[in-house]
Design goal:
The chain has 125 residues and is mostly helical. It has a domain at 31-98. 64% of the residues lie in helices and 0% in strands. The chain has six helices and no strands. It has helices at 5-22, 40-49, 51-59, 64-72, 76-88, 97-117. Helix 1 runs antiparallel to helix 6 (97-117) and helix 2 (40-49) packs across helix 5 (76-88). It is elongated and about 75 Å long. The protein starts with a helix and ends in an 8-residue tail after the last helix. The relative contact order is 0.11. The model has no long low-confidence stretch (mean pLDDT 78).
């Protein structure tokens, strides 16, 4: 039994959309050369001195002296862990947009599959 061309193309498109949905998302950001190869203490200081972070700390009620005292009281293990977490931060998150797009693609694929098979969904009360 030979499948019509339209159905073959639709199965190919469904497979390719599923394949692209599995590919992990990669986020990138421009970083100044000052962040590369820094010691954990210096990296934390530069991070805390950045404009966005310093404004947020001020909004939370922390002064620069309090932050410096707290940073000085951390152990080497805590400093390294904090520096690693800074390296893993995403610069700009997608805000759930990826989930919404994925759900839309799945819904479109389901409708397309139902149309191709000639099936209908009837909701009866």
């Amino acid at each position: 039994m030979r499948m019509p061309l339209f159905r073959q193309v639709s199965f190919y498109l469904i497979f390719s959309m599923l394949l692209f949905a599995v590919v992990p998302r990669v986020d990138g950001a421009m970083l100044g050369s000052g962040f590369l190869g820094l010691s954990p203490v210096r990296k934390l200081q530069r991070f805390l001195e950045s404009e966005v972070v310093s404004k947020r700390l001020l909004a939370l009620g922390f002064t620069a002296d309090e932050v410096a005292d707290r940073l000085g009281s951390l152990s080497d293990k805590d400093l390294n862990q904090f520096a690693q977490r800074i390296d893993q931060l995403r610069v700009a998150g997608d805000g759930g947009l990826g989930i919404i797009v994925s759900l839309l693609v799945i819904a479109i694929l389901v409708v397309l599959l139902l149309q191709l098979t000639g099936r209908r969904i009837i909701i009866v009360k």
